[in-house]
Amino acid sequence: MTIPAQQRGAAAFLQALTGSAPVETHISAVFAGPNNVYKLKKAVRLSFLDFTALQTRRDMARREFELNRVAAPEIYRGVQAVVHTGDGGLRLAPADAADAIDYVVHMARIPPGDFLDEIVAAGKLTPKLLDALGDCLADLHARLPPLRNTDSVCGMHDIIDGNAQAARAAGLDADRVTEWLSAVRAALDRIAHVLTARTASGHVRRLHGDLHLGNICLWHGKPVAFDMLEFDDALATADVGYDLAFLLMDLEFHAGRAAANRVMNRYVARTGDAGLVATLPCFMSIRAIVRAHVQASRGAAREGARYLSVAVESLRNVPPLLVAIGGLQGTGKTTLARALAPALGRAPGALLLRSDEARKRLFDAHPEQKLGPSSYTPSANARVNTVLLADAATALLAGHATIIDSTFLHEPLRHAAEATARTAACKFVGYWLEAELDTLLDRVAARAGDASDAGPDIVRRAAELDPGRITWHRLPAEDAAECLALARAELPVQDRSAPPPPDGHIEAAQGSLPHV
Fold it and tell me: Which domain covers residue 384, as residue numbers?
Protein backbone atom coordinates (compact mmCIF):
# COMPACT_ATOMS: atom_id res chain seq x y z
CA MET A 1 0.00 0.00 0.00
CA THR A 2 1.21 3.51 -0.80
CA ILE A 3 0.23 7.12 -0.27
CA PRO A 4 -1.50 8.62 -3.35
CA ALA A 5 0.76 11.04 -5.26
CA GLN A 6 -1.36 14.09 -4.46
CA GLN A 7 -0.92 13.48 -0.72
CA ARG A 8 2.78 12.75 -0.55
CA GLY A 9 3.65 16.29 0.49
CA ALA A 10 1.22 16.13 3.40
CA ALA A 11 2.50 12.65 4.28
CA ALA A 12 6.12 13.82 4.29
CA PHE A 13 5.17 16.72 6.57
CA LEU A 14 3.33 14.41 8.99
CA GLN A 15 6.22 11.97 9.03
CA ALA A 16 8.65 14.76 9.87
CA LEU A 17 6.26 16.11 12.52
CA THR A 18 5.87 12.77 14.30
CA GLY A 19 9.26 11.27 13.55
CA SER A 20 7.77 8.01 12.29
CA ALA A 21 6.78 6.38 9.04
CA PRO A 22 3.05 5.75 8.66
CA VAL A 23 1.19 2.59 9.47
CA GLU A 24 -1.03 2.09 6.43
CA THR A 25 -4.38 0.46 5.82
CA HIS A 26 -6.41 0.41 2.62
CA ILE A 27 -7.94 3.79 3.42
CA SER A 28 -5.69 5.53 5.95
CA ALA A 29 -2.13 6.39 6.87
CA VAL A 30 -1.52 6.75 10.60
CA PHE A 31 1.47 8.79 11.82
CA ALA A 32 2.29 8.17 15.48
CA GLY A 33 4.49 10.55 17.43
CA PRO A 34 5.57 10.36 21.08
CA ASN A 35 2.31 11.93 22.31
CA ASN A 36 0.17 12.63 19.26
CA VAL A 37 -1.20 10.59 16.39
CA TYR A 38 -2.44 11.97 13.06
CA LYS A 39 -4.64 9.90 10.78
CA LEU A 40 -4.70 10.87 7.11
CA LYS A 41 -7.46 9.46 4.94
CA LYS A 42 -6.12 8.34 1.59
CA ALA A 43 -7.45 9.85 -1.61
CA VAL A 44 -8.55 6.47 -2.95
CA ARG A 45 -11.59 5.10 -4.75
CA LEU A 46 -12.52 1.54 -3.79
CA SER A 47 -15.60 -0.57 -4.42
CA PHE A 48 -17.11 0.53 -1.11
CA LEU A 49 -15.96 4.16 -0.78
CA ASP A 50 -14.60 7.16 -2.67
CA PHE A 51 -12.21 9.46 -0.79
CA THR A 52 -10.72 11.14 -3.84
CA ALA A 53 -12.42 14.49 -3.19
CA LEU A 54 -10.86 16.75 -0.55
CA GLN A 55 -14.28 17.73 0.79
CA THR A 56 -15.18 14.06 1.29
CA ARG A 57 -11.98 13.45 3.26
CA ARG A 58 -12.78 16.48 5.40
CA ASP A 59 -16.33 15.27 6.01
CA MET A 60 -15.20 11.74 6.84
CA ALA A 61 -12.53 13.04 9.22
CA ARG A 62 -15.18 15.06 11.02
CA ARG A 63 -17.55 12.10 11.02
CA GLU A 64 -14.88 9.83 12.51
CA PHE A 65 -14.21 12.36 15.26
CA GLU A 66 -17.92 12.81 16.03
CA LEU A 67 -18.53 9.06 16.29
CA ASN A 68 -15.45 8.27 18.33
CA ARG A 69 -16.02 11.16 20.69
CA VAL A 70 -18.81 8.96 22.07
CA ALA A 71 -16.76 5.77 22.21
CA ALA A 72 -13.30 7.12 23.08
CA PRO A 73 -13.51 10.80 24.08
CA GLU A 74 -10.06 10.94 25.69
CA ILE A 75 -8.33 9.42 22.67
CA TYR A 76 -9.89 11.56 19.93
CA ARG A 77 -8.77 15.19 20.15
CA GLY A 78 -10.19 16.77 17.01
CA VAL A 79 -9.78 17.38 13.29
CA GLN A 80 -7.06 19.60 11.87
CA ALA A 81 -6.27 20.94 8.43
CA VAL A 82 -2.92 20.73 6.68
CA VAL A 83 -2.16 24.13 5.14
CA HIS A 84 0.74 25.88 3.42
CA THR A 85 3.01 28.26 5.32
CA GLY A 86 4.25 31.50 3.88
CA ASP A 87 7.68 30.02 3.11
CA GLY A 88 6.36 27.05 1.13
CA GLY A 89 6.23 24.60 3.99
CA LEU A 90 3.22 22.98 5.67
CA ARG A 91 1.65 23.29 9.09
CA LEU A 92 -1.42 22.17 11.00
CA ALA A 93 -4.31 24.60 11.35
CA PRO A 94 -7.91 24.58 12.58
CA ALA A 95 -10.23 22.36 10.58
CA ASP A 96 -12.11 25.34 9.14
CA ALA A 97 -9.01 26.80 7.47
CA ALA A 98 -9.94 28.04 3.99
CA ASP A 99 -6.71 27.00 2.28
CA ALA A 100 -6.50 23.37 3.49
CA ILE A 101 -4.79 20.85 1.23
CA ASP A 102 -5.82 17.92 3.42
CA TYR A 103 -7.21 16.96 6.81
CA VAL A 104 -6.15 14.71 9.67
CA VAL A 105 -7.86 13.21 12.69
CA HIS A 106 -5.84 14.16 15.77
CA MET A 107 -5.60 11.43 18.40
CA ALA A 108 -3.71 10.65 21.58
CA ARG A 109 -0.91 8.11 21.40
CA ILE A 110 -1.91 4.64 22.63
CA PRO A 111 1.11 2.95 24.22
CA PRO A 112 2.49 -0.06 22.31
CA GLY A 113 1.29 -3.32 23.80
CA ASP A 114 -2.01 -1.84 24.95
CA PHE A 115 -4.00 -2.92 21.90
CA LEU A 116 -6.21 -5.90 22.58
CA ASP A 117 -4.84 -7.98 19.71
CA GLU A 118 -1.36 -7.58 21.19
CA ILE A 119 -2.63 -8.44 24.66
CA VAL A 120 -4.27 -11.62 23.36
CA ALA A 121 -1.19 -12.59 21.36
CA ALA A 122 0.93 -12.15 24.49
CA GLY A 123 -1.40 -14.41 26.48
CA LYS A 124 -2.29 -11.63 28.92
CA LEU A 125 -6.08 -11.99 28.96
CA THR A 126 -7.47 -12.31 32.48
CA PRO A 127 -11.01 -12.92 33.79
CA LYS A 128 -11.04 -9.34 35.08
CA LEU A 129 -10.12 -7.98 31.65
CA LEU A 130 -12.75 -10.15 29.93
CA ASP A 131 -15.40 -8.80 32.29
CA ALA A 132 -14.17 -5.28 31.57
CA LEU A 133 -14.57 -5.94 27.83
CA GLY A 134 -18.19 -6.89 28.40
CA ASP A 135 -18.64 -3.72 30.45
CA CYS A 136 -16.98 -1.62 27.74
CA LEU A 137 -19.37 -2.78 25.04
CA ALA A 138 -22.45 -2.66 27.27
CA ASP A 139 -21.64 0.91 28.28
CA LEU A 140 -20.98 1.94 24.66
CA HIS A 141 -24.25 0.48 23.39
CA ALA A 142 -26.15 2.17 26.22
CA ARG A 143 -24.95 5.54 24.88
CA LEU A 144 -26.16 4.86 21.33
CA PRO A 145 -29.77 5.85 20.54
CA PRO A 146 -32.17 3.16 19.24
CA LEU A 147 -33.12 3.26 15.54
CA ARG A 148 -36.51 1.65 15.03
CA ASN A 149 -37.18 2.60 11.40
CA THR A 150 -34.85 0.13 9.73
CA ASP A 151 -35.14 -3.28 8.09
CA SER A 152 -32.40 -5.22 9.84
CA VAL A 153 -33.34 -8.51 8.12
CA CYS A 154 -33.04 -7.11 4.61
CA GLY A 155 -29.77 -5.44 5.54
CA MET A 156 -28.35 -8.74 6.78
CA HIS A 157 -29.31 -10.51 3.55
CA ASP A 158 -27.38 -7.86 1.62
CA ILE A 159 -24.35 -8.29 3.88
CA ILE A 160 -24.46 -12.07 3.48
CA ASP A 161 -24.64 -11.91 -0.31
CA GLY A 162 -21.83 -9.35 -0.49
CA ASN A 163 -19.56 -11.44 1.68
CA ALA A 164 -20.24 -14.63 -0.30
CA GLN A 165 -19.24 -12.80 -3.46
CA ALA A 166 -16.12 -11.40 -1.80
CA ALA A 167 -15.19 -14.83 -0.41
CA ARG A 168 -15.31 -16.40 -3.86
CA ALA A 169 -13.36 -13.52 -5.37
CA ALA A 170 -10.68 -13.95 -2.69
CA GLY A 171 -10.14 -17.56 -3.77
CA LEU A 172 -11.71 -19.35 -0.83
CA ASP A 173 -12.98 -22.88 -1.47
CA ALA A 174 -16.05 -22.35 -3.65
CA ASP A 175 -17.91 -25.44 -2.42
CA ARG A 176 -17.25 -24.49 1.20
CA VAL A 177 -18.49 -20.94 0.56
CA THR A 178 -21.66 -22.33 -1.06
CA GLU A 179 -22.18 -24.56 1.98
CA TRP A 180 -21.80 -21.54 4.24
CA LEU A 181 -24.15 -19.42 2.14
CA SER A 182 -26.93 -21.98 2.28
CA ALA A 183 -26.52 -22.50 6.02
CA VAL A 184 -26.33 -18.81 6.95
CA ARG A 185 -29.35 -17.90 4.85
CA ALA A 186 -31.34 -20.59 6.63
CA ALA A 187 -30.05 -19.35 9.99
CA LEU A 188 -31.09 -15.80 9.18
CA ASP A 189 -34.54 -16.96 8.09
CA ARG A 190 -34.97 -18.73 11.43
CA ILE A 191 -34.25 -15.57 13.41
CA ALA A 192 -35.95 -13.06 11.09
CA HIS A 193 -38.93 -12.67 13.42
CA VAL A 194 -36.56 -12.21 16.36
CA LEU A 195 -34.64 -9.45 14.57
CA THR A 196 -37.86 -7.68 13.61
CA ALA A 197 -39.06 -7.76 17.21
CA ARG A 198 -35.69 -6.60 18.50
CA THR A 199 -35.73 -3.66 16.08
CA ALA A 200 -39.10 -2.60 17.45
CA SER A 201 -37.84 -2.92 21.02
CA GLY A 202 -34.83 -0.67 20.41
CA HIS A 203 -31.95 -3.09 19.92
CA VAL A 204 -30.86 -1.66 16.56
CA ARG A 205 -28.32 1.16 16.83
CA ARG A 206 -25.74 2.97 14.77
CA LEU A 207 -22.94 0.76 16.12
CA HIS A 208 -19.17 0.72 16.26
CA GLY A 209 -19.27 -1.40 13.12
CA ASP A 210 -15.73 -2.78 13.10
CA LEU A 211 -15.17 -4.21 16.57
CA HIS A 212 -12.31 -6.64 16.03
CA LEU A 213 -9.52 -7.06 18.57
CA GLY A 214 -7.26 -4.45 16.97
CA ASN A 215 -9.88 -1.73 17.47
CA ILE A 216 -9.94 -2.02 21.26
CA CYS A 217 -7.18 -0.75 23.51
CA LEU A 218 -6.46 -0.18 27.17
CA TRP A 219 -6.76 3.45 28.20
CA HIS A 220 -5.77 4.16 31.80
CA GLY A 221 -6.14 0.44 32.40
CA LYS A 222 -9.67 0.06 31.01
CA PRO A 223 -10.76 -1.28 27.60
CA VAL A 224 -11.91 1.37 25.14
CA ALA A 225 -13.30 0.77 21.66
CA PHE A 226 -12.01 3.17 19.01
CA ASP A 227 -11.91 3.59 15.22
CA MET A 228 -15.66 3.30 14.68
CA LEU A 229 -16.62 2.70 11.07
CA GLU A 230 -17.31 6.17 9.70
CA PHE A 231 -17.77 5.89 5.95
CA ASP A 232 -21.07 3.98 5.71
CA ASP A 233 -23.85 4.39 8.27
CA ALA A 234 -25.88 1.61 6.65
CA LEU A 235 -23.10 -0.94 7.21
CA ALA A 236 -22.78 0.12 10.83
CA THR A 237 -26.52 0.10 11.60
CA ALA A 238 -27.62 -3.26 12.97
CA ASP A 239 -28.69 -5.18 16.04
CA VAL A 240 -26.35 -4.73 19.00
CA GLY A 241 -25.67 -8.45 18.80
CA TYR A 242 -23.91 -7.88 15.48
CA ASP A 243 -21.39 -5.57 17.16
CA LEU A 244 -20.87 -7.98 20.03
CA ALA A 245 -20.53 -10.90 17.61
CA PHE A 246 -17.42 -9.46 15.95
CA LEU A 247 -15.62 -9.25 19.27
CA LEU A 248 -16.81 -12.71 20.33
CA MET A 249 -15.79 -14.30 17.04
CA ASP A 250 -12.34 -12.71 17.12
CA LEU A 251 -11.85 -13.72 20.75
CA GLU A 252 -12.91 -17.29 20.04
CA PHE A 253 -10.58 -17.51 17.05
CA HIS A 254 -7.52 -16.14 18.84
CA ALA A 255 -8.10 -16.94 22.51
CA GLY A 256 -10.67 -19.76 22.62
CA ARG A 257 -14.37 -20.11 23.26
CA ALA A 258 -14.06 -19.71 27.03
CA ALA A 259 -12.91 -16.11 26.52
CA ALA A 260 -15.78 -15.35 24.14
CA ASN A 261 -18.29 -17.02 26.44
CA ARG A 262 -17.19 -14.97 29.44
CA VAL A 263 -17.52 -11.67 27.55
CA MET A 264 -20.97 -12.64 26.24
CA ASN A 265 -22.19 -13.51 29.71
CA ARG A 266 -20.81 -10.33 31.23
CA TYR A 267 -22.54 -8.29 28.51
CA VAL A 268 -25.87 -9.99 29.22
CA ALA A 269 -25.36 -9.60 32.97
CA ARG A 270 -24.93 -5.86 32.46
CA THR A 271 -27.69 -5.30 29.89
CA GLY A 272 -30.24 -8.01 30.71
CA ASP A 273 -30.47 -8.71 26.97
CA ALA A 274 -30.83 -12.49 27.15
CA GLY A 275 -32.68 -12.46 23.83
CA LEU A 276 -29.55 -11.58 21.86
CA VAL A 277 -28.27 -15.16 22.15
CA ALA A 278 -30.73 -16.06 19.38
CA THR A 279 -28.70 -13.90 16.99
CA LEU A 280 -25.14 -14.81 17.92
CA PRO A 281 -24.47 -18.00 15.90
CA CYS A 282 -25.62 -16.30 12.71
CA PHE A 283 -23.87 -13.02 13.43
CA MET A 284 -20.61 -14.66 14.50
CA SER A 285 -20.66 -16.68 11.30
CA ILE A 286 -21.05 -13.55 9.18
CA ARG A 287 -18.25 -11.82 11.05
CA ALA A 288 -16.01 -14.85 10.50
CA ILE A 289 -16.62 -14.87 6.75
CA VAL A 290 -15.60 -11.20 6.63
CA ARG A 291 -12.26 -12.03 8.19
CA ALA A 292 -11.95 -15.11 5.97
CA HIS A 293 -12.06 -13.23 2.69
CA VAL A 294 -10.04 -10.28 4.04
CA GLN A 295 -7.21 -12.60 5.08
CA ALA A 296 -7.41 -14.62 1.87
CA SER A 297 -7.28 -11.47 -0.25
CA ARG A 298 -4.08 -10.47 1.58
CA GLY A 299 -2.44 -13.76 0.70
CA ALA A 300 -3.00 -15.46 4.06
CA ALA A 301 -4.83 -18.40 2.48
CA ARG A 302 -4.43 -20.75 5.41
CA GLU A 303 -5.80 -18.25 7.91
CA GLY A 304 -8.62 -17.40 5.53
CA ALA A 305 -9.54 -21.07 5.35
CA ARG A 306 -9.53 -21.30 9.15
CA TYR A 307 -11.89 -18.34 9.41
CA LEU A 308 -14.14 -19.98 6.82
CA SER A 309 -14.24 -23.12 8.96
CA VAL A 310 -15.23 -20.98 11.95
CA ALA A 311 -17.98 -19.39 9.86
CA VAL A 312 -19.43 -22.81 9.04
CA GLU A 313 -18.90 -24.25 12.53
CA SER A 314 -20.62 -21.30 14.20
CA LEU A 315 -23.86 -22.30 12.48
CA ARG A 316 -23.81 -25.86 13.75
CA ASN A 317 -27.11 -26.55 15.48
CA VAL A 318 -26.85 -28.11 18.95
CA PRO A 319 -30.00 -28.96 20.92
CA PRO A 320 -30.54 -26.62 23.89
CA LEU A 321 -30.49 -27.80 27.47
CA LEU A 322 -31.02 -26.21 30.86
CA VAL A 323 -28.52 -26.77 33.64
CA ALA A 324 -29.41 -25.59 37.15
CA ILE A 325 -26.74 -25.38 39.83
CA GLY A 326 -27.82 -25.00 43.45
CA GLY A 327 -26.35 -25.22 46.91
CA LEU A 328 -25.26 -22.98 49.75
CA GLN A 329 -23.20 -19.87 49.18
CA GLY A 330 -19.53 -20.72 48.76
CA THR A 331 -20.02 -24.18 47.27
CA GLY A 332 -18.51 -23.03 43.97
CA LYS A 333 -21.65 -22.81 41.85
CA THR A 334 -20.32 -19.98 39.69
CA THR A 335 -16.93 -21.62 39.30
CA LEU A 336 -18.61 -24.78 38.03
CA ALA A 337 -21.02 -22.86 35.80
CA ARG A 338 -18.23 -20.88 34.14
CA ALA A 339 -16.22 -24.03 33.55
CA LEU A 340 -19.18 -25.81 31.94
CA ALA A 341 -20.64 -22.97 29.87
CA PRO A 342 -18.12 -22.73 26.97
CA ALA A 343 -18.57 -26.41 26.05
CA LEU A 344 -22.37 -26.41 26.05
CA GLY A 345 -24.67 -25.70 23.13
CA ARG A 346 -24.26 -23.36 20.21
CA ALA A 347 -21.73 -20.59 19.68
CA PRO A 348 -20.37 -19.08 21.83
CA GLY A 349 -21.45 -21.50 24.57
CA ALA A 350 -24.15 -21.48 27.20
CA LEU A 351 -25.82 -18.40 28.60
CA LEU A 352 -25.01 -18.14 32.31
CA LEU A 353 -27.72 -16.55 34.44
CA ARG A 354 -26.51 -15.72 37.97
CA SER A 355 -29.02 -14.71 40.60
CA ASP A 356 -26.43 -12.36 42.12
CA GLU A 357 -25.99 -10.49 38.83
CA ALA A 358 -29.72 -10.39 38.10
CA ARG A 359 -30.31 -8.83 41.53
CA LYS A 360 -27.70 -6.13 40.92
CA ARG A 361 -29.27 -5.30 37.58
CA LEU A 362 -32.76 -5.05 39.10
CA PHE A 363 -31.45 -2.51 41.59
CA ASP A 364 -29.42 -0.57 38.98
CA ALA A 365 -26.15 -1.57 40.60
CA HIS A 366 -22.86 -2.64 39.07
CA PRO A 367 -22.30 -6.40 39.50
CA GLU A 368 -19.57 -5.89 42.09
CA GLN A 369 -21.41 -3.15 43.99
CA LYS A 370 -22.65 -4.24 47.41
CA LEU A 371 -26.36 -4.08 48.19
CA GLY A 372 -28.05 -3.64 51.53
CA PRO A 373 -30.66 -5.81 53.31
CA SER A 374 -33.56 -4.06 51.54
CA SER A 375 -32.45 -5.73 48.29
CA TYR A 376 -32.84 -9.19 49.84
CA THR A 377 -36.48 -9.12 51.00
CA PRO A 378 -38.86 -11.93 50.03
CA SER A 379 -40.40 -9.69 47.37
CA ALA A 380 -36.96 -8.85 45.95
CA ASN A 381 -36.06 -12.54 45.89
CA ALA A 382 -39.29 -13.29 44.01
CA ARG A 383 -38.45 -10.63 41.42
CA VAL A 384 -34.97 -12.09 40.93
CA ASN A 385 -36.36 -15.61 40.47
CA THR A 386 -38.94 -14.37 37.97
CA VAL A 387 -36.21 -12.72 35.90
CA LEU A 388 -33.99 -15.81 36.00
CA LEU A 389 -36.74 -18.14 34.79
CA ALA A 390 -37.99 -15.71 32.15
CA ASP A 391 -34.50 -15.15 30.74
CA ALA A 392 -33.86 -18.90 30.73
CA ALA A 393 -37.10 -19.51 28.85
CA THR A 394 -36.18 -16.83 26.29
CA ALA A 395 -32.79 -18.39 25.61
CA LEU A 396 -34.04 -21.98 25.55
CA LEU A 397 -36.87 -21.21 23.16
CA ALA A 398 -34.28 -19.58 20.91
CA GLY A 399 -32.35 -22.86 20.92
CA HIS A 400 -29.57 -21.73 23.25
CA ALA A 401 -28.12 -23.75 26.14
CA THR A 402 -28.57 -22.03 29.50
CA ILE A 403 -27.20 -22.39 33.03
CA ILE A 404 -28.97 -20.95 36.06
CA ASP A 405 -26.68 -20.30 39.03
CA SER A 406 -28.64 -19.74 42.25
CA THR A 407 -28.86 -21.24 45.71
CA PHE A 408 -32.19 -22.95 44.88
CA LEU A 409 -32.73 -23.42 48.61
CA HIS A 410 -36.50 -23.59 48.15
CA GLU A 411 -38.01 -26.68 46.55
CA PRO A 412 -40.70 -24.78 44.56
CA LEU A 413 -37.98 -22.85 42.72
CA ARG A 414 -36.25 -26.08 41.76
CA HIS A 415 -39.54 -27.41 40.43
CA ALA A 416 -40.05 -24.17 38.48
CA ALA A 417 -36.64 -24.58 36.81
CA GLU A 418 -37.50 -28.13 35.78
CA ALA A 419 -40.85 -26.91 34.44
CA THR A 420 -39.05 -24.24 32.38
CA ALA A 421 -37.06 -26.95 30.64
CA ARG A 422 -40.19 -29.02 30.00
CA THR A 423 -41.96 -26.03 28.46
CA ALA A 424 -39.01 -25.53 26.12
CA ALA A 425 -38.97 -29.29 25.37
CA CYS A 426 -35.30 -29.54 26.25
CA LYS A 427 -33.08 -31.65 28.48
CA PHE A 428 -32.73 -30.63 32.13
CA VAL A 429 -29.83 -31.38 34.45
CA GLY A 430 -29.80 -30.20 38.05
CA TYR A 431 -26.75 -30.18 40.35
CA TRP A 432 -26.71 -29.75 44.11
CA LEU A 433 -23.27 -28.80 45.43
CA GLU A 434 -22.27 -29.69 48.98
CA ALA A 435 -19.28 -28.93 51.20
CA GLU A 436 -18.42 -28.67 54.88
CA LEU A 437 -19.69 -25.51 56.56
CA ASP A 438 -16.18 -24.47 57.66
CA THR A 439 -15.05 -24.64 54.02
CA LEU A 440 -17.94 -22.45 52.91
CA LEU A 441 -17.29 -19.90 55.63
CA ASP A 442 -13.62 -19.65 54.66
CA ARG A 443 -14.50 -19.24 50.99
CA VAL A 444 -17.04 -16.44 51.39
CA ALA A 445 -14.81 -14.62 53.86
CA ALA A 446 -12.04 -14.60 51.27
CA ARG A 447 -14.20 -13.28 48.41
CA ALA A 448 -13.34 -9.98 46.76
CA GLY A 449 -14.64 -8.32 43.63
CA ASP A 450 -17.55 -10.72 43.15
CA ALA A 451 -21.25 -10.16 42.55
CA SER A 452 -22.22 -12.17 45.63
CA ASP A 453 -22.94 -10.20 48.79
CA ALA A 454 -23.08 -13.29 51.01
CA GLY A 455 -20.88 -13.23 54.07
CA PRO A 456 -20.33 -15.81 56.82
CA ASP A 457 -23.48 -14.81 58.74
CA ILE A 458 -25.67 -15.31 55.68
CA VAL A 459 -24.12 -18.71 55.04
CA ARG A 460 -24.76 -19.81 58.62
CA ARG A 461 -28.42 -18.78 58.41
CA ALA A 462 -28.85 -20.49 55.04
CA ALA A 463 -27.31 -23.68 56.41
CA GLU A 464 -30.06 -23.85 59.03
CA LEU A 465 -32.83 -23.89 56.41
CA ASP A 466 -34.47 -27.11 55.28
CA PRO A 467 -34.13 -27.21 51.46
CA GLY A 468 -36.66 -30.03 51.18
CA ARG A 469 -36.19 -33.13 49.06
CA ILE A 470 -33.12 -32.93 46.82
CA THR A 471 -33.57 -34.88 43.58
CA TRP A 472 -30.75 -33.24 41.65
CA HIS A 473 -27.28 -34.76 41.24
CA ARG A 474 -25.40 -34.25 44.49
CA LEU A 475 -21.81 -33.20 43.88
CA PRO A 476 -19.01 -32.91 46.46
CA ALA A 477 -17.74 -29.34 46.15
CA GLU A 478 -14.59 -29.49 48.28
CA ASP A 479 -12.46 -30.17 45.20
CA ALA A 480 -13.36 -28.00 42.19
CA ALA A 481 -11.66 -30.29 39.66
CA GLU A 482 -13.48 -33.38 40.94
CA CYS A 483 -16.77 -31.49 40.98
CA LEU A 484 -16.28 -30.41 37.36
CA ALA A 485 -15.39 -33.92 36.21
CA LEU A 486 -18.50 -35.38 37.85
CA ALA A 487 -20.70 -32.66 36.37
CA ARG A 488 -19.31 -33.07 32.86
CA ALA A 489 -20.08 -36.79 32.97
CA GLU A 490 -23.80 -35.93 32.94
CA LEU A 491 -23.62 -33.47 30.03
CA PRO A 492 -23.13 -33.49 26.24
CA VAL A 493 -20.06 -31.25 26.49
CA GLN A 494 -17.64 -30.52 23.70
CA ASP A 495 -14.19 -29.13 24.34
CA ARG A 496 -13.92 -25.81 22.52
CA SER A 497 -11.98 -24.08 25.26
CA ALA A 498 -8.69 -24.02 23.35
CA PRO A 499 -8.04 -21.81 20.31
CA PRO A 500 -7.08 -23.32 16.95
CA PRO A 501 -3.37 -23.68 16.18
CA PRO A 502 -1.77 -20.30 15.47
CA ASP A 503 -0.91 -19.29 11.92
CA GLY A 504 1.45 -16.42 12.42
CA HIS A 505 0.65 -13.46 14.65
CA ILE A 506 -2.51 -11.48 15.03
CA GLU A 507 -2.34 -8.51 12.70
CA ALA A 508 -2.76 -4.97 13.96
CA ALA A 509 -5.88 -2.96 13.17
CA GLN A 510 -6.47 -3.05 9.44
CA GLY A 511 -9.06 -0.33 9.04
CA SER A 512 -12.65 -0.66 7.94
CA LEU A 513 -13.46 -3.01 5.11
CA PRO A 514 -16.56 -3.71 2.99
CA HIS A 515 -19.48 -5.79 4.21
CA VAL A 516 -18.42 -5.59 7.85
Answer: 321-488
